Amino acid sequence: MTKMNLDRRNFLKGGIAVGAAAAMGSMLAACAPQGSAQGSASAVDDADAASVSQVGGGYANPDGIGIPVEPNSTEDVDVVVVGSGMGGFTASMLVKEQMPDAHVVMLEKLNALGGNTNFAEGGAGFLNMTPEEARKSVQADVIQRNFVVDGSLFYAMRTQQGDCADWLFGKHQVAIKDYGSGQPLYEGGTGASAIATLTPQAEDLGVDIRMESRAFALVLSDEYTVTGIQYKDVDGNVVQLNAKAVVIASGGMNTNPELLKYYSNVDLGKVMPLGTGQDGDGHLMVEQTAHGRTGLQTIDGFFAGIGTADDPCGFNSDLNTGAGFQFSSVFVNQYGNRFYDESFNFNTGSQLFFTTIPSVILSQSQAFSIFDDSYVDRWEKGEWQNGHNGFDSATKQGEPLKVRGDLESVKDKDWFYQADTIEELGKAIAADVPSFDVDNFVATIDAYNAAANGAEDEWGKPQEFIWPLETAPFYAAKAGVNAYNTNGGIHINTHAQVVDPVGKPITGLYASGIATAGWDSQVYGGGTNQPVALWCSCMAALHIVENCLGGTVSDNWMGDVPMTDILGEDYQNANPLG
């Protein structure tokens, strides 16, 4: 086979231009810029695909994401939504409600619906803000995130979030409840209840839900025009869906460390991923277009965890909760010193304790959680401050943690240390970490015990959280980050259209949720998962209806049940969770 050098534009025209059916032409024109080509069917030979692929620079890409092939079959549909979490369900259902005759396909690559929404706890910003309220809120959002986020997206979301909440919680009766965590949560504390509520409604609307169907490549006529998508079905057949619009709501790349290392600037050896199916597929597909490379991923950390990326203690382990989640936790770094201001409580100033601690831990070459047998006793008596999540913290205070069984299971782990004295514990750590100064460590713990007995604490920790370290055996565990997802990458405008580096929309392509950029900096700020997915997908659906399908959005698309009927007239917005 004769090979030729292909630049990005030639490749897009000749290799990725797997065509849409001619019957789609008139409606697609309403969604496409005037004069855009519709393309003809062709594909890249599998043997040459990797050599011309523009996606995931450096990534081995074993699954060929972002590389179109010759399909086994082709269908003409109206809209394809990739992902079945909150973003996927919202986009699919809202389009179908406004355009009942539209053929809307929702693709889910796993054999269960919901994605990481099943593990999320929060709902949304429940009320629309006035312009003045939104400006003040956005100022706080931007300051909290070090001025590197998109204030225009936050402003748009804050002024429209109530309509989206009315649609989800009022019109579609997704249940929420105030458990005392500071913000109403999904009923039962996780979004699994929301997915269970939405699934039969989506089916009744006629959303074409296809499970075990992994989307892997966009269909383009040129780098600014998306005309469909390809996916592999449960039998491995490649199906091409020619569509007028595609919504990427496929989540982050948390469970694909081989890809994430090209999009993150932290030590992934300390990042312990949670969730399922977060492989970065949507990011790589978007890179087929003029958008180009997707950006830096924020690690959405939740407290500290113990263990390593390859061998985590486990998010649901009570030992992990005790040693990593508490205000009373004690951390030292690779030199045997405490290393951060511990005067703050759960929510101090513009930052949240549970989201800043992961970045503090990642700032060090290595961190260790230090505890002794008295801590284990106290945890097992129900003395702790923070549970696995806001729901547990609010509803399970005082319940005993079951820690000793976990201790037995980790005693032989490379990341776990036990000794009869603090000095011996320090020597055990120093045998693995040459920079660890045993004398510093002993002095650090002596000073900590003095603070527990009333002396001033150098790091400002409130007295109530300074538990003495005096009861053998003494324990240390390597500390890292419980990362329940990544956030960022795909740039969008306020219609959730994917855009190129100068803001020009990619026709027919939208993105939603944590795959989108502009919401977080190095530190996860809270409230940028579920609320963003809900808002992005509402905006995408409304834009698709009027600009890609030729319809008209109803004035009361959000329904007739306002959130004030659910939460009460006196309810005021708080920081969204999830």
Write the layout of secondary structure elements.
Elements: H1 8-14, H2 25-31, H3 46-52, E1 73-76, E2 79-82, H4 86-98, E3 104-108, H5 131-144, H6 151-171, E4 176-177, E5 185-186, H7 192-205, E6 208-211, E7 214-222, E8 225-232, E9 238-242, E10 245-248, H8 257-260, E11 271-273, H9 281-286, E12 298-306, H10 318-324, E13 330-333, E14 347-348, E15 351-352, H11 353-362, E16 367-372, H12 373-380, H13 390-395, H14 404-410, E17 416-419, H15 422-432, H16 438-452, E18 474-487, E19 497-499, E20 505-511, H17 530-547, H18 563-567
Parallel strand pairs: 1-9, 2-3, 2-10, 3-6, 10-20, 11-18
Antiparallel strand pairs: 4-5, 7-8, 8-9, 12-18, 13-16, 14-15, 16-18, 17-18, 19-20
Helix pairs in contact: 4-7, 4-17, 5-6, 6-17, 15-16
Signal peptide: 1-29
Cofactor: FAD
GO molecular function, one term: steroid dehydrogenase activity, acting on the CH-CH group of donors
Protein architecture, described:
This protein is an alpha/beta fold and 578 residues long. It folds into 2 domains: 8-80 and 90-233 and 256-275 and 284-297 and 488-554, FAD/NAD(P)-binding domain; 301-484, Alpha-Beta Complex (Flavocytochrome C3, Chain A, domain 1). Helices cover 31% and strands 17% of the residues. The chain contains 18 helices and 20 strands. The chain has helices at 8-14, 25-31, 46-52, 86-98, 131-144, 151-171, 192-205, 257-260, 281-286, 318-324, 353-362, 373-380, 390-395, 404-410, 422-432, 438-452, 530-547, 563-567, and strands spanning 73-76, 79-82, 104-108, 176-177, 185-186, 208-211, 214-222, 225-232, 238-242, 245-248, 271-273, 298-306, 330-333, 347-348, 351-352, 367-372, 416-419, 474-487, 497-499, 505-511. Strands 6-3-2-10-20-19 form a 6-stranded mixed β-sheet, with helices on one face. Strands 11, 12, 13, 16, 17 and 18 form a 6-stranded mixed β-sheet that branches. A 4-stranded mixed β-sheet has the order 1-9-8-7. Helix 5 crosses helix 6 and helix 6 (151-171) packs across helix 17. The longest helix is centred in the first third of the chain and has 21 residues, at 151-171. The protein starts with 7 loop residues before the first helix and ends in an 11-residue tail after the last helix. The model is unreliable at 1-30, 33-52 and 346-351 (pLDDT under 50). Its cofactor is FAD. It holds the Pfam family TAT_signal. Residues 1-29 form the signal peptide. This is FAD-binding dehydrogenase. InterPro entries: FAD-dep_OxRdtase_2_FAD-bd, FAD-oxidoreductase_2, FAD/NAD-bd_sf, Succ_DH/fumarate_Rdtase_cat_sf, TAT_signal, TAT_signal_bac_arc.
